[in-house]
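Weekly sync, protein design subgroup
Attendees: M.S., D.O., the rotation student, P.L. (late)

Item 1: inverse folding check
M.S. brought a backbone from last month's batch and wanted to see whether the design step gives back something sensible before we order anything. D.O. pointed out we never logged the input encoding, so this time it goes straight into the notes. Structure tokens as presented (211 positions):
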């Protein structure tokens, strides 16, 4: 697809260790994100999918919240996956498309997706795939920027004069919080918890597969 090819070109501008390094503001932003995501996880989740794992930093963060869980990370970019395999050999990493997951139905106890859905040309297809691979009453943890007025201002400058330059043009879809709620509710999920943080610029959902 045209959108997918364009996004792959954008990813080639992003350093493989982008999330491992970064500056103070990036660590602050992502640190609060991981506080929210980890609060939704528990030891009950034995098999977890990290959807859009990039260089594996997110997969490692998840492992710290759920010790002993079997983790699989996927990303569309092969360079990211090669880097992740080198840095975190204890996890399984695959090159895969979030809109066409290479797993059997009801394979995972939880799927974690952080700052990925806005980069997809067909986000509803991804949500449908997450529902398919989750076990009954499995957890879908979705975290994303809110596209609030403040976020749009900061993002405008971040991708032009800040460290976010590699991500310019990467947001293929924009979501408000209500848009995300409708997407989850309309695709077989019940929203159990919601956390808004980073001055209202980010939101994390804990959604449960209804059946």
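Designed sequence read out in the meeting:
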């Amino acid at each position: 697809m045209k959108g997918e090819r364009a996004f792959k070109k954008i990813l080639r501008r992003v350093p493989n260790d982008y999330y491992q390094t970064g500056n103070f503001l990036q660590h602050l932003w992502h640190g609060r994100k991981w506080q929210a995501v980890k609060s939704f996880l528990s030891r009950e989740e034995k098999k977890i999918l990290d959807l859009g794992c990039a260089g594996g930093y997110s997969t490692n963060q998840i492992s710290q919240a759920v010790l002993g869980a079997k983790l699989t990370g996927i990303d569309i970019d092969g360079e990211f996956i090669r880097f992740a395999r080198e840095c975190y050999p204890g996890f399984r990493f695959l090159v895969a498309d979030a809109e066409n997951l290479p797993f059997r139905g009801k394979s995972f106890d939880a799927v974690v997706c952080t700052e990925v859905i806005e980069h997809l040309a067909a986000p509803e297809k991804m949500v449908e795939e997450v529902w398919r691979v989750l076990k009954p009453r499995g957890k879908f943890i979705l975290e994303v920027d809110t596209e609030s007025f403040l976020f749009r201002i900061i993002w405008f400058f971040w991708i032009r004069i800040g460290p976010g330059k590699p991500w310019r043009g990467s947001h293929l879809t924009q979501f408000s919080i209500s848009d995300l709620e409708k997407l989850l509710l309309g695709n077989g999920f019940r929203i159990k918890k919601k956390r808004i943080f980073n001055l209202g610029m980010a939101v994390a959902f804990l959604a449960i597969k209804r059946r």
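Discussion: The chain has a mean pLDDT of 91. DSSP finds seven helices and seven strands in the chain.
Action: P.L. to compare against the previous round before Friday.
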